[in-house]
Amino acid sequence: MASRIDLAPWLLVLLLGSGCPGTTSxxxxxxxxxxxxxxxxxxxxxxxxGADDTAGSTTGSSDDGSSGGPGCELPPVDEAVVDMLYVYGxxxxxxxxxxxxxxxxxxxxxxxxxxxxxxxxACVEWSVDPIEGVxxxxxxxxxxxxxxxxxxxITVTADLEQGRRLIVAQLExxxxxxxxxxxxxxxxxxxxxxGSPAFxxxxxxxxxxxxxxxxxxxxxxxxxxxxxxxxxxTHDPGTxxxxxxxTGGNYVPPDVDGEGTATVMDGQLVLQDxxxxxxxxxxxxxxxxxxxx
Length: 293
Description:
- The protein is mainly beta.
- It folds into 2 domains: 4-174, no CATH class; 183-292.
- Helix content is 5%, strand content 38%.
- The chain has helices at 7-16, 79-82, and strands spanning 32-35, 58-60, 86-88, 92-93, 96-100, 103-106, 108-113, 116-120, 124-128, 134-136, 141-144, 153-160, 165-174, 183-185, 187-190, 207-210, 215-219, 229-235, 241-249, 259-265, 268-272, 289-292.
- The chain has a 9-stranded antiparallel sheet with strand order 14-16-17-18-19-20-21-22-15, with no helix packed on it. Strands 1, 2, 4, 5, 9, 12 and 13 form a 7-stranded mixed sheet that branches.
- The longest helix is centred in the first third of the chain and has 10 residues, at 7-16.
- The protein is elongated, with a radius of gyration of 23 Å.
């Protein structure tokens, strides 16, 4: 991130009437926003200001014209979206702030457009507060070493257009789960409680997602970023034991039973003695298990 010692050449460029697109006048206010949260929770913001907020951080700068630094030639970001920008990457954004050990994550700036993240090309100088095993390069690729402890909080700062806005994200390091049930699944059958043959339910669960963070979500009719409900899970691949804990949702069925087993065989995920609940307008009766593909 640009520090106070960079102000003299920056001011000289202004006086000469040229410089990096997006450079702001001395009358502009440098703002700093901090976003956080975990799992499916929300995000928080604080109004801390000034370039000294990230003093001592490790920076990634470049003069290649494609990222932050004096050589950046990208046009200024549209004023209409500047205040809506946040740090974005796989698994990172509003309501999600986790990054895996031993991972590399490409970060960028984005805003929510019609329910979806819309990335922007911008002059950004990236930095991280010093943590052993953590670094970020000029293009915003965040590297987290295998030895970084679980639960470590990484503070990433994106300096947009040499101080036009400072966007801060606090990311929590986690150790990814290793389980065959991870991924996105679609329901194909349900298992009756009386042991009779499986049947195709109406409606089916369109998305059951198990994430390596230990979180899950259930959605009957997927639409943009909507989920019916979500929570945390534990799974023992050896015994198949599965435990689901619902932590929130837009629609949470009153009859969810999250204790049972989960096994994967021949490309199918079978939940036995687990009931994810009835849909809002079910046609078929409740059951005692699910089959997903």
